[in-house]
Amino acid sequence: KGPAACLMMQNEEPIFAHIIPRPAAFGADEAPPARVIEVGKGFTIHFSHAHEDTNDRIVCYTSGWPPANTTEFLGAWGGEAPDFSCIPPARLWRTELDLRTGTCISHAVVKGLENCCIEHPHVHPAYYSSAHPDPDSATTLSPPAPSPPRLVHMSLGDCIRGCTSPPQGYLTVNVETGETQKYFLGVRCFAEEPVLVPAPSRAPPGPMRE
Predict the structure, then answer these.
(1) C-alpha closest to that of 97 among 17, 8, 28, 206
(2) 46 annotated as belonging to a binding site for a ligand
(3) What SS3 state is found at 43?
(4) Domain coordinates of the chain in residue numbers?
(5) Confidence at residue 107, expressed as pLDDT on a 0 to 100 scale
(6) 186: exposed, middle or buried (Cβ count in 10 Å: 0-12, 13-18, 19+)
(7) Would the CA dihedral through 105, 17, 152, 162 be positive or negative?
(8) Are 112 and 178 in contact (CB under 8 A)?
């Protein structure tokens, strides 16, 4: 067996979020301890981004599976081709955590994307370290972002029946308005993980541009 075949899914176990404060944001003796918050059931695959608001709440976006009866971790990916009928559909999830009460306020698929099979969500690179920018690595192409990102870009499979399928295009969603843009590559064409490259000059801002 390979490493992945040795892992077994525990579908009845909840997801736990581990909140670890950045030491640079506090004094030497002031940093609060790390916290663990129970989120809910399912399986988180990839993180898009997260941000903390002024009300001590953390909002994060991830790709993941809903609670399923899958027992083998990625077991259906073996052989010449994956058996997509045995793979749970990946969705874009929005999770909100309350740091004051140590509880999960919500953990649900992003509204409007309930039937979209997606993977590899990303945001503009300027947002990767917007809270604590490194002046030595800052460039004019990717200045520190002043606010949480609105747009999440990801690969897109089936968006009609909501079943698991190979990625055949790309999806951008505005998480503030719910507006989406879809781009399909064509028949018998498949998409890879999106790579976002900042343009040398910024286009005028709009609902689907950052």
Answers:
(1) 17
(2) yes
(3) strand
(4) 4-184
(5) 96
(6) exposed
(7) negative
(8) yes
List C-alpha distances in Å: 76 to 3, 5, 11, 56, 65. 14, 10, 16, 40, 14
- β-pairing, 57-65 vs 91-98, is antiparallel
In 3D, which of 20, 202, 31 has the Cα closest to residue 126?
202
pLDDT at site 140: 40
Interval 137-148: pLDDT, tens: 444 444 444 578
What is the pLDDT at residue 207? 56
The rounded distance, in Å, linking the Cα atoms of 169 and 28 is 47
Counting beta carbons within 10 angstroms of the beta carbon of residue 172, is it exposed (0 to 12), middle (13 to 18) or buried (19 or more)? middle
Pick from 58, 44, 53: which is nearest to 96 by CA?
A: 58
Which residue, chain included where needed, has tokens 């719910």?
A: 178
